[in-house]
Amino acid sequence: MSFATNALGLDWEKTVIESLPPAAVLLVLGRALMGLLFVSAGLGHLKSLDEITERIRARGAPFPRTVLLIGTAFEIAAGAMLMLGLLAPFPALGLVIFVLVAGLLLLDFWNKQGEARQAAANGWRSNLGLIGGLLVAAAAALG
User: Fold this and answer.
1) What one-character DSSP code corresponds to residue 13?
2) How many other C-beta atoms can be found within 10 angstroms of the C-beta atom of residue 56?
3) What local confidence, expressed as pLDDT, does residue 19 receive?
4) CA-to-CA distance for 5 and 116, rounded, in angstroms?
5) Residues 24-81: pLDDT tens digits?
6) Where are the domains of the chain?
7) Residue 59 CA, distance from chain mean position
8) Could you give the angle at the alpha carbon of 23 between the alpha carbons of 19 and 27, nearest 5°?
């Protein structure tokens, strides 16, 4: 009996994987990659707490460390839920709001000049792409 064949003699790869429509495979892969982006970014924030806290403080947010920790916890949890397809519309739409708020706090290109302005504007463009993908993931999960 091969690894892919269960005790009933069914070939798991042929009964499950090959029967999935290509769109479903692409949706699961896309959701997993998008969720991984948020999980890895959130974990990365934990390595730069002081720097990011100061950036949030400089923008005038109250309780910047608390804001960062709550946002980071949400980013990791929602990203993991998206990866696993758990209640997918909710983490996807929550992450849309998260991306918008984080962008307003940290990517204020309208207050910058030169290369810093261009870098922040590029961040916004990337975030718009993420928001588009999150909206597609939410719509697909809603049917």
Assistant:
1) I
2) 21
3) 76
4) 56
5) 989 999 999 999 999 999 999 999 999 999 999 999 999 999 999 999 999 999 999 9
6) 12-142
7) 23
8) 110
pTM of the model: 0.84
The predicted model gives 121-129 an average pLDDT of 97
Six-digit token string for 24? 């479903």
CA distance 78 to 83: 9
CB atoms within 10 A of CB 105: 19
| Torsion, CA 17, CA 18, CA 19, CA 23, rounded to 10 | 80
Angle at 136 (CA atoms; ends 29, 94), nearest 5 degrees: 95
Q: What does the angle CA 126 – CA 129 – CA 132 come to, to the nearest 5 degrees?
A: 155
CA atoms within 13 A on the CB side of 71: 25
What are the strands, taking DSSP E only, across the chain?
Answer: none
CA–CA distance, 87 with 138 (Å, rounded to integer): 9
Q: Amino acid identity of 29?
A: L
pLDDT at 15: 60
For residue 95, give Cα distances in angstroms to 35, 56, 61, 78, 140: 10, 18, 19, 7, 16
pLDDT digits (tens, 9 = 90+) for 75-104: 999 999 999 999 999 999 999 999 999 999
